[in-house]
Amino acid sequence: MLMNSLGRMCLSLSGPKSDNRNDDSDTFICSFHHFPNGSITVYLRDFVIEGVQKGVPMGFRSMIAGFDDSKHNYLRFVGGPYIACGLYLCITGMFLTLPSDLSLLFERKLKDPHKSPTSAMELDFRSIERLGSVRFCNSKGYNQIYRFFLAQFYMLINIKFWKKAIEMQRQRWNQVQVQVRCILFLPYVLVCVMELIACFRYYGLPILPFTISVIRAYCGYLLTLVKNYRLRIVRYIGFVFLFIVMAAVLFFVYMFCTIFLDACLFLSRVCFFTFTGIVVYPKLSYGYLIFFFTIIY
């Protein structure tokens, strides 16, 4: 009964029935196939294709409809998901294979400021280690990069970090002349609040410091190569390539975040429909749950 009502709902969403449409089940938006054991399989391929043709945003699922239809549905500014994925794979392969030692390239760009910080956005390594409770200064390679970002994330749940950030703001305020404090009080409070929000977003989303590290690593690597040449035309060409590399890095990060979010949405949908199936068919799903937890443990 539930599947029949769902089928009628899909038919109502597909619009009125035309004269040249057949009565077969493959003309529905969703095709329902009943098997002898009582299970039901729902194919959404026709639904995705029809949705793409009508202009419904389908994300990477629009690739099912083909190149011509998908390029007008998703990621239009780069020519569609096919071209975007191709560029993403090419740029990723280039970034992974061009440096002789990728871990050393990133490790060199994790420089300790070695100065007294005036903002929570520019803490030295020792402060990050102490406030994040993760040691990374003695680590090497990818392990140091991983521990560095992990320590930055853990700082957010340490109340001492927020106390230190507010204390830095108070010290900056003490350096302001008394005559102009009344004028700058409200703007400075607003700036301090925005700075704390920026700290939360910067340290709470590791993709942001990772993006900055990638830009610094590859652009610094390219600048080092350009400085070794004395010819001005080579330097000019190198600076042009520098902007191209920055654009490629930003596109790489954008595609990485897009694919990551799309994967998270897919997994959340799987969890949601799995939970729905457990509620609707408890007897059938009970055995699968036991089998699933048996494999895990």
UniProtKB/TrEMBL annotation:
Its keywords, alphabetically, are: Membrane, Transmembrane, Transmembrane helix
Q: Which domain of life is it from?
A: Eukaryota
Residue stretches spanning the membrane: 77-98, 145-162, 183-203, 209-226, 238-261, 273-296
Does this entry carry the keyword Membrane?
yes
- This protein is called Uncharacterized protein
